[in-house]
Design a protein that fits this description.
This protein has helices spanning about 20-30, 45-60, 90-110, 125-135, 150-155, 195-215, 220-230, 235-240, 245-265, 275-285, and strands at about 5-10, 35-40, 75-80, 115-120, 145-150, 165-170. The protein has about 290 residues and is of the alpha/beta class. The protein is elongated, with a radius of gyration of 25 Å.
Length: about 290
Amino acid sequence: MAQHAPTLLLATLGSEPQVVTLALQALLRRGEVIDEVCVIHTSSPQPRLAAAVELLKRTFAARVSGLGWAGRTRFRAIESPAGPVADFLEPDDFRAALATVYQVVRDAKLAGRRIHLNLSGGRKVMTLCAMTAAQLLFDQGDHLWYLQSDPALVAGRDLLAPDPAQITLVEIPLLRWSPAPPIMTDVALAQDPVEAIRRVQGNRRAALRRFLDQELTPAEREVALLALRTGATDRALAARLGKSPRTVSHQLSVIYAKLRSYLGLRDDVRVDRRTLLLELGELAADERVRV
């Protein structure tokens, strides 16, 4: 029997359980082998939400043959291990929901699992949380989906589509922050998504610091930092540095060219003082970086 990587279908859930079962049906028709389905939902006591969770539990317990589960697919529902979230009224509610999705995705990736994440159910805020977690932790083997269903199928609230043409999984492109699998980087060491975001930002900041310290000559670095801190013209910079305006202008041109290459910008993209300020302005303001 061919081996497959353990695969998780993760879904945000509101009051419509069919967004989970229909997405699973579509994935199984694609030939995916799903070992576990996990839904994340709020702890709100709304009857429709509670009914949706219970219906999914019964459906999976019954091992519905129409989906080809054959008892292989486990099911679990998670309210919020990071703290109960009844609704999204305060910033802490959002942070708790984000932490929940992040922890589930991180644990799955640490266990070597592939993830299919379905964003079709639940509140929009939960969708944003899920996308943030995916952007932090997904690699090339993971997929982000949105489910489109035939209106008649939606109206009937059917858990299965009798006609495969009634359901379509639309893949959502995801820009990953690192060419390496994120779970192998220091970002995955963070237990909390806010800390993970800080690590990503810190990695970018460190890369820009390397540009200042290693890609520029001491003279170019001096010109770049003074230009950033003062906003002075080339002539004013030259007067402060005891150089000719022509020398300063040439040095800035070289700095712009190096920055273009370092950031991988196209040749037709203008790189100038504004680009320098956008990319390096925060570093220049840091008191630890001195001319």
